[in-house]
Amino acid sequence: MSGLHLRAALAQRDLDVELHVAPGEVVALLGPNGSGKSTLLSLVAGLLQPDAGRITLDEDVLLDTDAGTHVPPHRRGVVLLAQQALLFPHLSAADNVAFGPRARGRGRGAARAEAVRWLDAVGADGLGARKPSELSGGQAQRVAVARALAAEPRLLLLDEPMEALDVAAAPALRQLLRTVLRTQGRSALLVTHDVLDALVLADRVVVLESGRVVESGPTRDVLSRPRSAFAARVAGLNLVAGTAVEHGLRTTDGVLVSGTVDPACVAGERAVAVFSPSAVAVHPSRPDGSPRNAVEVVVASVEPRGEQVRVRAVESGDGAGLMADVTVGAAAELELVPGARAWFAVKAAEVVVHPG
What we know:
Layout: E1 4-10, E2 15-21, E3 26-30, H1 37-45, E4 52-57, E5 60-64, E6 69-70, E7 78-81, H2 93-103, H3 108-121, H4 137-150, E8 155-159, H5 169-184, E9 188-191, H6 195-201, E10 204-209, E11 212-218, H7 219-224, H8 229-235, E12 238-245, E13 248-250, E14 256-258, E15 260-261, E16 270-275, E17 281-283, E18 292-305, E19 308-313, E20 323-327, H9 328-333, E21 341-347, E22 352-355
Parallel strand pairs: 3-9, 3-10, 7-8, 8-9, 15-22
Antiparallel strand pairs: 1-2, 1-4, 4-5, 5-6, 10-11, 12-13, 12-16, 13-14, 16-22, 17-21, 18-19, 18-21, 19-20
Helix pairs in contact: 2-3, 2-4, 3-4, 4-5
């Protein structure tokens, strides 16, 4: 079995996960704080040991608790790129990048040549002589990427590498990582809170909640047809959970949500109804007229979104807090302020029901 295969349980952090990363694949780990994303990276890197589990990389066993196998971090062929560049402060940028090749036994001249090549590849060719203290945050992260790739890892672990960068530097580094990962055919496991990172970098998304995998699939599928509450929030969509029925979904509260049912749904089994906030109309009282889904809500917050505002309802029942996008004028006319009551309505044609 090539690529990364992981099965691990760690009771102290309530983690029980099985995961696969194919050769040349980039997998994004999404999930709320405390869901186990960084813990999972630490297990792969060898910085943490699970209570039980087995980790293999390109058919090499990195960890097997049953057999008592534990390969130390420096022998795993794995490199972790974190939020902070963590460059060696006493070395120049070029010497930082040359560190990996030197550790692999390359001579000083050969390692220096590799450093120059990688600095050029990440757009930092003029920074080789500088010390880390002389680099901006974006420049330091570019050097850190070069250092990580110069080590020729079999798997690159990315722990929110854009998180500490300013709004100008983050897009450039994101595009750089995309170019390098694609042209080099690198396998990577990416932890992120930013949907743009997943869209730009990842082939597949895995969603973690409370130390468990709750959703997995191609990036486009997960973000356009989410089946977990967190993925729906990341994608900016409404999601209501329940069980599939003939023409929609029924929540545990007994509410019927009408919509177009995915043929893969099985009546009586778990399902989710997904719809866009822009499809939701807001009314001061229960609406009449054409068939639609309607629910009374309490406004939790109102957030500006350009020429519109996003109205979030207080979380209740089987869904996360529902959202509606309305004009500023409509929000003012309906007096949509936190604590106000209103009715959210969405036509059945705007709702799609998927297997849960």
